[in-house]
Design brief:
single chain, 1 helix, mainly beta, globular
Length: 127
Protein backbone atom coordinates (compact mmCIF):
# COMPACT_ATOMS: atom_id res chain seq x y z
CA UNK A 1 0.00 0.00 0.00
CA UNK A 2 1.42 3.33 -1.05
CA UNK A 3 1.20 5.90 1.76
CA UNK A 4 2.25 9.41 0.83
CA UNK A 5 3.40 12.05 3.29
CA UNK A 6 3.94 15.69 2.33
CA UNK A 7 6.16 18.14 4.16
CA UNK A 8 7.76 21.54 3.65
CA UNK A 9 4.76 23.83 3.65
CA UNK A 10 4.60 27.03 5.62
CA UNK A 11 4.17 30.78 5.57
CA UNK A 12 6.33 32.72 3.13
CA UNK A 13 6.37 36.27 1.84
CA UNK A 14 5.61 37.06 -1.80
CA UNK A 15 8.70 36.45 -3.89
CA UNK A 16 9.98 33.83 -1.50
CA UNK A 17 10.66 30.13 -1.98
CA UNK A 18 9.64 26.81 -0.51
CA UNK A 19 10.50 23.21 -1.27
CA UNK A 20 7.81 20.62 -0.75
CA UNK A 21 8.67 16.96 -0.27
CA UNK A 22 6.57 13.88 -0.87
CA UNK A 23 7.78 10.61 0.64
CA UNK A 24 6.30 7.16 0.79
CA UNK A 25 6.19 5.40 4.12
CA UNK A 26 5.27 2.17 2.43
CA UNK A 27 6.46 0.76 -0.82
CA UNK A 28 8.86 2.40 -3.19
CA UNK A 29 7.49 5.03 -5.55
CA UNK A 30 9.67 3.93 -8.50
CA UNK A 31 6.80 2.48 -10.51
CA UNK A 32 4.48 5.42 -9.94
CA UNK A 33 3.86 8.69 -11.64
CA UNK A 34 3.73 11.45 -9.05
CA UNK A 35 1.79 14.69 -9.11
CA UNK A 36 1.39 17.79 -7.01
CA UNK A 37 -2.09 19.26 -6.73
CA UNK A 38 -3.35 22.25 -4.79
CA UNK A 39 -6.65 23.55 -3.52
CA UNK A 40 -7.22 27.14 -2.51
CA UNK A 41 -10.12 28.12 -0.25
CA UNK A 42 -13.34 28.22 -2.23
CA UNK A 43 -11.70 26.89 -5.38
CA UNK A 44 -11.50 23.54 -7.10
CA UNK A 45 -8.43 21.41 -6.79
CA UNK A 46 -5.98 21.89 -9.66
CA UNK A 47 -3.00 19.96 -10.92
CA UNK A 48 0.21 21.91 -10.44
CA UNK A 49 2.89 19.57 -11.75
CA UNK A 50 3.35 15.89 -12.55
CA UNK A 51 6.37 13.71 -13.28
CA UNK A 52 6.87 10.36 -14.96
CA UNK A 53 8.35 7.29 -13.29
CA UNK A 54 11.79 7.96 -14.70
CA UNK A 55 11.59 11.71 -14.28
CA UNK A 56 12.07 12.42 -17.96
CA UNK A 57 8.57 13.72 -18.62
CA UNK A 58 7.08 16.57 -16.65
CA UNK A 59 4.00 18.74 -16.85
CA UNK A 60 3.34 22.16 -15.33
CA UNK A 61 0.16 24.15 -15.25
CA UNK A 62 0.63 27.48 -17.04
CA UNK A 63 0.52 29.64 -13.91
CA UNK A 64 3.64 28.01 -12.41
CA UNK A 65 5.82 27.53 -15.49
CA UNK A 66 9.25 29.03 -14.98
CA UNK A 67 8.73 29.30 -11.21
CA UNK A 68 8.18 25.73 -10.00
CA UNK A 69 10.28 22.63 -10.63
CA UNK A 70 9.36 19.02 -9.92
CA UNK A 71 12.00 16.34 -9.42
CA UNK A 72 12.38 12.91 -7.93
CA UNK A 73 15.17 11.27 -5.96
CA UNK A 74 14.89 7.51 -6.21
CA UNK A 75 17.56 6.88 -3.61
CA UNK A 76 15.55 8.85 -1.08
CA UNK A 77 12.17 7.62 -2.40
CA UNK A 78 11.08 11.25 -2.46
CA UNK A 79 9.57 13.68 -4.96
CA UNK A 80 10.17 17.40 -4.59
CA UNK A 81 8.39 20.54 -5.72
CA UNK A 82 10.70 23.53 -5.69
CA UNK A 83 8.61 26.69 -5.64
CA UNK A 84 10.21 30.06 -6.37
CA UNK A 85 8.90 33.60 -6.86
CA UNK A 86 5.83 32.67 -4.88
CA UNK A 87 2.68 34.73 -5.27
CA UNK A 88 -0.35 35.11 -2.98
CA UNK A 89 -2.38 33.15 -5.54
CA UNK A 90 -0.14 30.14 -4.89
CA UNK A 91 -1.69 29.85 -1.44
CA UNK A 92 -3.49 26.60 -0.76
CA UNK A 93 -3.20 23.06 0.51
CA UNK A 94 -0.73 21.13 -1.61
CA UNK A 95 -1.31 17.42 -2.07
CA UNK A 96 1.01 14.75 -3.38
CA UNK A 97 -0.63 12.02 -5.43
CA UNK A 98 0.55 8.89 -7.18
CA UNK A 99 -0.68 6.38 -9.69
CA UNK A 100 0.58 3.69 -11.98
CA UNK A 101 0.81 4.67 -15.65
CA UNK A 102 -2.79 4.70 -16.90
CA UNK A 103 -2.80 7.81 -19.04
CA UNK A 104 -0.54 10.65 -20.14
CA UNK A 105 1.29 12.81 -17.63
CA UNK A 106 -0.72 15.82 -18.77
CA UNK A 107 -4.01 13.96 -18.35
CA UNK A 108 -3.00 12.83 -14.88
CA UNK A 109 -2.45 16.43 -13.88
CA UNK A 110 -5.42 17.98 -15.63
CA UNK A 111 -8.02 15.40 -14.58
CA UNK A 112 -6.80 14.62 -11.08
CA UNK A 113 -7.96 11.06 -11.60
CA UNK A 114 -5.25 9.61 -9.36
CA UNK A 115 -5.42 6.63 -7.06
CA UNK A 116 -3.25 7.49 -4.05
CA UNK A 117 -3.26 10.77 -2.15
CA UNK A 118 -1.42 12.30 0.77
CA UNK A 119 -3.08 14.43 3.42
CA UNK A 120 -1.63 17.70 2.20
CA UNK A 121 0.56 20.50 3.46
CA UNK A 122 -0.50 24.14 3.79
CA UNK A 123 1.31 26.82 1.80
CA UNK A 124 0.50 30.43 2.61
CA UNK A 125 2.03 33.29 0.64
CA UNK A 126 1.37 36.55 2.41
CA UNK A 127 3.14 39.67 3.59
Amino acid sequence: QLQLVESGGGLVQPGGSLRLSCASSGETMDAYRIGWFRQAPGKEREGVSCISQGGGITYYTDSVKGRFAISRDKARNTVYLEMNSLKPEDTGVYYCAADLPRTTIQAMCTTGDVRYWGRGTQVTVSS
